[in-house]
Amino acid sequence: MNTDVFSPEKRSAVMRRVKGRDTSPELAVRAILRAAGIGYRLGGCGLPGRPDVVMKGRRTVVFVHGCFWHGHDCARGSRKPKANAEYWTAKIDRNRARDARVEAGLILAGWRVLSVWECELREPGFAARLTAAVKAQAASSAA
Question: pTM for this structure?
Answer without folding.
Answer: 0.80
